[in-house]
Amino acid sequence: MDQIHSTRIEYVQSLATPPPRCDGIITDRPNLPLAVMSADCYPVLLFDEKRKVVAALHAGRAGAMGQIVAQALQRLVDDFKAHQIRGIIAPGIGSCCYEVGPEILAQVEAKYIKRDRFLDIKGMIKDQLSYFGVQYYDYGICTCCNPNYYSYRREGRTGRFASLIWRSA
Ligand SMILES: [Zn+2]
């Protein structure tokens, strides 16, 4: 996907050129890998083994605050009758490092604000997963703390790492 920090979610059936401009992508086609590129934003991968559907989400601050995870889960339930969805939260920036300004803090619930000015994006993602009863695996890695990962906050100009999911036939 051509990621734009939105909550747009597209369903795809084949490799698209150019890739769709969105931050969430869903497919039920076999052997079609979905990728999220990130450096601090959270990649969230979803799958339902029974319904054979997978999704990849780019959930940074804008996506998490815009409920992109909940929106994707609703699509999986509505369009694919998914009811055993599982999730993976790949490494992203933790509330240990993600300091934001007052204009952003004013828009979020107090429970997502740590130590007065640090935003807990992963808390938002977990709450959206839990609301749908999704069991998930959390890597528990902060990209800003851990030098093995690219971090926009730590490095400024930096690379991206890719998180991929696909269903086998
Ligand atoms: Zn950190």
SSE layout and pairings?
Blueprint: E1 9-11, E2 24-27, E3 34-38, E4 42-48, E5 53-59, H1 61-65, H2 68-80, E6 86-89, H3 102-105, E7 113-114, E8 118-119, H4 121-131, E9 135-138, H5 152-155, E10 161-165
Parallel strand pairs: 1-2, 6-9
Antiparallel strand pairs: 2-5, 3-10, 4-5, 4-6, 7-8
This protein binds zinc ion.
Protein described:
With 169 residues, this protein is α+β, with helices and mostly antiparallel strands. The chain has a single domain, classed as CNF1/YfiH-like putative cysteine hydrolases, CATH 3.60.140.10. 22% of the residues lie in helices and 25% in strands. Strands 1-2-5-4-6-9 form a 6-stranded mixed sheet. The protein has a two-stranded antiparallel sheet with strand order 3-10. The longest helix has 13 residues, at 68-80. The protein is globular and about 45 Å long. Bound molecules: zinc ion. Zinc ion is lined by residues 94, 96-97, 142, 144-145.
